[in-house]
């Protein structure tokens, strides 16, 4: 099973990218999780839809070929980061060629606070449901505080969080099978 993972953060030491790397390690042996780059995409403009940039085409093709999707988002000003919205806009276009339609999608987020990504995840769920993605409703993965979940090397040191993530990956696996 091939799963594409998208981090909504471009920060070098992004907690959400650390989360995606941890999910790679927790995934069942028959699930491969590939973290894709979205920081290299140009800003979306409908004027350029007729000649999609190569970076966008490559990402759309990966999403289309994937069995499932994981999105990990930080919360910026009570919403998702612009870079994530930009990637979503590209991947869902042009009209009638939405690459997210029907894709099992797991949404997560981690922050230094206890529920720091709850509002961003709510917005992301609305967007992905509008795009007809098969959004997994439970478990909700509002993870934090990060300093109680990850050690200095990015390994999960909290057993209840590890169990929750394994459960979520199992649900994604079942939906995508």
Can you characterise this structure?
This protein has 177 residues and is α/β, with parallel strands linked by helices. It is built from five helices and six strands; from the N terminus they run E-H-E-H-E-H-E-H-E-E-H. It has helices spanning 15-26, 54-65, 82-91, 118-130, 159-176, and strands spanning 2-7, 32-36, 68-72, 104-110, 134-135, 141-143. Strands 1, 2, 3, 4, 5 and 6 form a six-stranded parallel β-sheet that branches. Strand 4 (104-110), helix 4 (118-130) and strand 5 form a beta-alpha-beta unit. The longest helix has 18 residues, at 159-176. The termini are close together.
Task: Draw up the topology in text.
Blueprint: E1 2-7, H1 15-26, E2 32-36, H2 54-65, E3 68-72, H3 82-91, E4 104-110, H4 118-130, E5 134-135, E6 141-143, H5 159-176
Parallel strand pairs: 1-2, 1-3, 3-4, 4-5, 4-6
Q: What low-confidence regions span 5 or more consecutive residues with pLDDT below 50?
A: none
User: Could you give a short account of the major beta sheet?
Assistant: 6 strands, parallel
**Beginning-to-end CA distance, first to last residue:** 8 Å
Written as H for each helix and E for each strand, in order along the chain, the element string is: EHEHEHEHEEH
Compute the number of strand runs.
Answer: 6
The overall average pLDDT, rounded, is 96
Strand residues, percent: 15-25%
**SS-based structural class?**
alpha/beta
Please bin the fraction of helical residues. 25-40%
SS field, number of helical segments: 5
Shape: globular
Radius of gyration: 15 Å
């Amino acid at each position: 099973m091939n799963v594409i993972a998208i981090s909504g953060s471009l920060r070098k030491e992004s907690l959400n990218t650390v989360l995606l790397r941890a999910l790679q390690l927790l995934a069942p042996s028959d699930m491969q999780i590939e973290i894709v780059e979205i920081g290299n995409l140009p800003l979306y403009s409908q004027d350029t839809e007729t000649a999609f940039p190569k970076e966008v085409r490559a990402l759309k093709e990966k999403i289309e070929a994937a069995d499932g999707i994981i999105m990990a988002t930080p919360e910026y000003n009570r919403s998702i980061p612009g870079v994530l919205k930009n990637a979503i806009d590209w991947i869902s276009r042009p009209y009638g060629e939405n690459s997210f339609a029907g894709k099992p999608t797991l949404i997560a987020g981690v922050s230094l606070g206890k529920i720091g990504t709850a509002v961003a995840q709510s917005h992301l769920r609305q967007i992905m449901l509008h795009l007809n993605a098969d959004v997994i409703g439970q478990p909700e993965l509002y993870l934090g505080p990060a300093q109680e979940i990850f050690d200095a090397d990015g390994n999960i040191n909290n057993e209840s969080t590890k169990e929750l993530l394994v459960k979520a990956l199992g649900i994604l696996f079942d939906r995508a099978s």
